[in-house]
Design brief:
Layout: E1 24-27, H1 31-42, E2 47-50, E3 66-67, H2 77-93, E4 101-102, E5 105-109, H3 112-124, E6 133-136, H4 137-143, E7 153-157, E8 161-162, H5 165-179, E9 182-184, E10 189-195, E11 198-204, E12 207-210, E13 214-216, H6 222-227, E14 236-245, E15 255-258, E16 261-265, E17 271-274, E18 279-282, H7 285-300, E19 305-308, H8 332-335, H9 345-358, E20 367-377, E21 384-387, E22 394-398, H10 404-420
Parallel strand pairs: 1-2, 1-13, 2-9, 5-15, 13-22, 18-19
Antiparallel strand pairs: 3-8, 4-8, 5-7, 6-7, 10-11, 11-12, 14-17, 14-18, 14-20, 15-16, 16-17, 21-22
C-alpha cells in the first residue's frame, strides 16, 4: 500500500513567486480555501491563495472522505446539496480522478431512540428535496449481510458520495491554478495590512501583497490569526484518529457509522475506520475563554472526549504559542508548517479489532496506515461564514466542525459570490459571527 501523502514531507508543488497585487487573498490551503480560490478564478477575479505549509496537508486530507448531505444542520443542507452537484461537475471537468463515487452513506441505529432521532432530522428538513430515508432492520441486514450486529434500522442517503481527500483536494488546487488562481505554498500570512481600519493587503513571510479583500479559511489556525487583529471567534480544535486498513474483500461499497465505529470503502481496496463521536481535546487558553459558550455542547455529550491539559508545542492553542507578534516576527504559522498530531494508538487497535469482530468474513484486518487530524469546532457545531463589519474587506469561512470536505465546493462557491458582492444564493444568517455576541439563543446543530 502506498503511503497517503498527508503533506508533512510532500515537496512544494505550488512555488509561484508572491505577486505584488491580488484582487483577493485567500489564507489557507484546505478544501475551503482551494474551492474559494477556484470559484473566484472562474468568476474572473485574480485570487492568490497563501498556504503556510502544503495544500490539503492538514484536516482536508485527514478526514473520512464522506461527501454527506444526511444529518446536516438545516441551514447547511441547501449548500451541501449544491456541493453534491458541484462535486459531480468537478469530477467531470478537472481532468483528474478525484476518487468520487456515488455510493450512499448510512447512519446505523442500535435502538429505537436513535431511530426517533433520525426521524426528527427528516422532519426538520422535510421539503428540502434530499433523498434521505429510514431503513428497516431487514433492509440494513440486506445491505450489510456479513455484519454481526442486529441493527434496529438506519438513516440512508443514496445520493451521498465518497472521495479520496488526499487525492481530490490537491487535484482541485491544480484545477484552480489552471483557471487563473495563484497558489503559494510555504508562505505564511503573518498579519493583515490595514489602512484606515480596512484591508489593504497581507504581510507574509515573503513580503507584502496588496489586496482590498481577504478571506480567512485557515481551519484550526483561523482564530489565532484573527485574534491578532481583535476579531474574536470562539473556535477550538479536537483531535480525531483514523486508520486505513490494507486491502480487504468488499463488504460494503459505501460508508456507514454506528455504535462508535465508522467505516468507508476506499479506492485502493481497503477501508478507512474511525471512532464516530470520539475526540481528544487539549486544554489551552482559548478553552478557558470559550468555556461558557461550549457548555451546551459539552453537556450534550460529556463523555465523547478525552481531555489533556497540555497541548503539543506550537499547536494553535498551546500554552506557549504566541498570541501577539509583529509583521517582521516569525509567526506561529511558520513554527508549525503542518499540524500533524499523532494518532491514538490504543484507538487504532480498538478500531481494527472491532471491524474484524463485526465482519468476521474479512479475516485478519491489518493496519495500512493511521493518522490524526485537528478538527476546528464551534460551540453550535456549524461554521462561521461572514464578512467582518469591523474590518471592511475581511471575510471568514472557518469552523467547519469536521464537515468541511464534502461541503467545500458549496462554501467555496458561496464565498466567491459573497466577496464579489454578488448574491450568494443561500441564506447565511445561520453562519453569522454575531450569533455569539448579539444575545441570540445558541441552537446546536444535529447530534446525528
Amino acid at each position: 500500500m502506498t503511503a497517503f501523502p498527508l503533506g508533512l514531507h510532500r515537496p512544494v508543488e505550488h512555488a509561484a513567486p508572491l505577486p505584488a497585487h491580488a484582487d483577493v487573498v485567500v489564507i489557507g490551503g484546505g478544501v475551503i480555501g482551494v474551492m474559494t480560490a477556484y470559484y473566484m478564478a472562474v468568476a474572473g477575479l485574480r485570487p492568490v491563495l497563501l498556504e503556510k505549509g502544503r495544500v490539503a496537508a492538514e484536516q482536508s486530507s485527514r478526514n473520512w472522505g464522506w461527501v454527506r448531505q444526511q444529518g446536516r444542520d438545516p441551514g447547511e443542507l441547501p449548500i451541501m446539496m449544491e456541493a453534491n452537484r458541484l462535486w459531480a461537475r468537478l469530477a467531470a471537468e478537472v481532468g483528474e480522478d478525484l476518487g468520487l463515487v456515488q455510493c450512499g452513506l448510512t447512519y446505523l441505529a442500535k435502538t429505537e431512540a436513535e431511530m426517533t432521532g433520525f426521524q426528527g432530522w427528516l422532519d426538520e428538513v422535510a421539503g428540502s428535496g434530499v433523498d434521505s430515508r429510514l431503513m428497516s432492520a431487514g433492509e440494513v441486514k440486506a445491505m450489510l449481510p456479513d455484519g454481526q450486529t442486529a441493527w434496529a434500522g438506519a438513516l440512508h442517503t443514496a445520493s451521498d458520495m465518497r472521495a479520496e481527500p488526499w487525492i481530490a483536494v490537491p487535484a482541485l488546487a491544480r484545477a484552480a491554478v489552471r483557471k487563473g488562481a495563484v497558489i503559494v505554498e510555504n508562505c505564511a500570512a503573518r498579519t493583515l495590512d490595514l489602512q484606515g481600519g480596512a484591508v489593504a493587503g497581507v504581510m507574509t513571510e515573503q513580503g507584502h501583497i496588496s489586496a482590498s479583500r481577504v478571506v480567512v479559511a485557515g481551519g484550526a489556525w483561523s482564530s489565532l490569526f484573527l485574534r491578532r487583529h481583535g476579531v474574536s471567534i470562539p473556535q477550538l480544535s479536537v483531535k480525531a484518529t483514523v486508520v486505513a486498513t490494507k486491502a480487504l474483500p468488499e463488504i460494503h461499497a459505501g460508508g456507514a457509522d454506528g455504535d462508535g465505529l465508522a467505516f468507508r470503502r476506499r479506492k485502493d481496496g481497503g477501508y478507512s475506520l474511525a471512532a464516530g463521536g470520539f475526540h481528544e481535546f487539549y486544554i489551552g487558553p482559548d478553552a478557558f475563554r470559550a468555556f461558557a459558550r461550549f457548555l451546551p455542547q459539552l453537556w450534550r455529550d460529556p463523555w465523547g472526549r478525552r481531555y489533556s491539559p497540555l497541548s503539543p508545542k506550537h499547536y494553535p492553542d498551546a500554552w506557549g504559542t504566541a498570541r501577539r507578534w509583529s509583521e517582521t516576527d516569525e509567526s506561529p504559522f511558520e513554527k508549525m508548517r503542518v499540524l500533524n498530531p499523532a494518532p491514538n494508538r490504543p484507538k487504532v487497535a480498538e478500531l481494527l479489532a472491532r471491524f474484524a469482530r463485526e465482519y468476521p468474513v474479512l479475516g485478519a484486518v491489518e493496519e495500512g496506515q493511521s493518522w490524526a487530524g485537528m478538527i476546528d469546532t464551534m460551540p453550535d457545531d456549524v461554521p462561521v461564514v461572514d464578512e467582518i463589519a469591523a474590518i471592511p474587506g475581511l471575510a471568514v469561512c472557518t469552523g467547519m466542525c469536521g464537515h468541511g470536505f464534502g461541503i467545500g465546493p458549496g462554501f467555496g462557491r458561496v464565498m466567491a459570490s459573497l466577496v464579489a458582492g454578488d448574491d450568494p444564493g443561500h441564506d447565511l444568517t445561520r453562519f453569522r459571527l454575531g450569533r455569539f455576541t448579539d444575545g441570540s439563543k445558541l441552537v446546536l446543530g444535529p447530534e446525528i
